[in-house]
């Protein structure tokens, strides 16, 4: 066994799957730990192009000062929303409180000039946000959730049940990149672990495994997969991944700690 988790990644091959525009920092973090990193992006973030959908976004942005609570589910939601806000609000209105799902999302909000509400602990997932005092009794208050098309329904459903007047502002689509299938089929390594930063990335990975030969599929199903939450890890096990490891959140620090734990455990 290694003397320290800090040596757990040295010489290990890690398959990463983040969108191409978000993968560089994660790859550099792993390489700094001595890992060999292969990247096959399994998610692509594409801004909505449909004219009606863009008009719906504009209408919500123009009404932004009328909202009591603004929830951002991802860094992509922050960047997309604030790009729109910059076009129509030279100064951010004082009305809404800001909320972030995830530490990286919170940092992105701060970088754009707003301060998100703080969550206790380090999970910062939807469940943690819903436990905040300011969201316990939003009856009659307006809530806007910035997200991609077809996001997870828990937050909106719960807030609606609590009496909130809810709007979704759906800014982007999450797609499976066209090259991913062939890149995975041509992948000749068996990684020591694979990192999957979201539930949708997990689903895409599982879908592509169905087109691989039996040996490669079996190897990728049995090697450690590092997931951003217990909920996503449970889903991975249901899909047949036998070594699903849950991080405390999707941030690079938490994902790295879970990866080190998984590989250290394998050396015992």
UniProtKB/TrEMBL annotation:
InterPro entries: 4pyrrol_syn_uPrphyn_synt_sf, 4pyrrol_synth_uPrphyn_synth, UROS/Hem4. Keywords: Lyase, Porphyrin biosynthesis. Belongs to the uroporphyrinogen-III synthase family. Pathway: Porphyrin-containing compound metabolism; protoporphyrin-IX biosynthesis; coproporphyrinogen-III from 5-aminolevulinate: step 3/4. It catalyses: hydroxymethylbilane = uroporphyrinogen III + H2O. Its EC number is 4.2.1.75. Residues 25-256 form the Tetrapyrrole biosynthesis uroporphyrinogen III synthase domain. Catalyzes cyclization of the linear tetrapyrrole, hydroxymethylbilane, to the macrocyclic uroporphyrinogen III. SUPFAM superfamilies: HemD-like. This is Uroporphyrinogen-III synthase. The keyword rRNA processing does not apply. It comes from the Bacteria.
């Amino acid at each position: 066994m290694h003397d320290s988790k800090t040596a757990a990644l040295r010489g290990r091959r890690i398959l990463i799957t983040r969108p191409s525009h978000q993968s560089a920092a994660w790859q550099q973090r792993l390489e700094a730990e001595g890992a060999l990193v292969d990247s096959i992006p399994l998610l692509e973030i594409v801004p909505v192009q449909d004219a009606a959908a863009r008009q719906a976004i504009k209408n919500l942005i123009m009404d932004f000062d009328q909202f009591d609570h603004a929830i951002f589910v991802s860094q992509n939601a922050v960047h997309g929303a604030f790009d729109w806000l910059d076009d129509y609000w030279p100064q951010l209105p004082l009305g809404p409180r800001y909320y972030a799902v995830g530490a990286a999302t919170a940092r992105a909000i701060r970088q754009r000039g707003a301060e998100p509400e703080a969550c206790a602990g380090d999970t910062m997932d939807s469940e943690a946000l819903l436990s905040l005092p300011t969201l316990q009794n939003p009856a009659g208050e307006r809530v806007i959730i910035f997200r991609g098309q077809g996001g997870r329904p828990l937050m909106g459903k719960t807030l609606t049940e609590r009496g909130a007047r809810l709007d979704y502002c759906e800014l982007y689509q999450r797609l499976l990149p066209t090259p991913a299938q062939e890149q995975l089929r041509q992948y000749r390594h068996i990684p020591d672990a694979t990192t999957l930063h979201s539930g949708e990335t997990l689903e895409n990975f599982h879908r592509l495994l169905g087109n691989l030969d039996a040996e490669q599929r079996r190897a990728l199903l049995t090697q450690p997969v590092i997931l951003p939450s217990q909920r996503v890890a449970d889903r991975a096990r249901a899909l047949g991944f036998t070594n699903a490891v849950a991080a405390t959140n999707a941030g690079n620090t938490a994902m790295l700690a879970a990866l080190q734990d998984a590989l250290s455990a394998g050396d015992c």
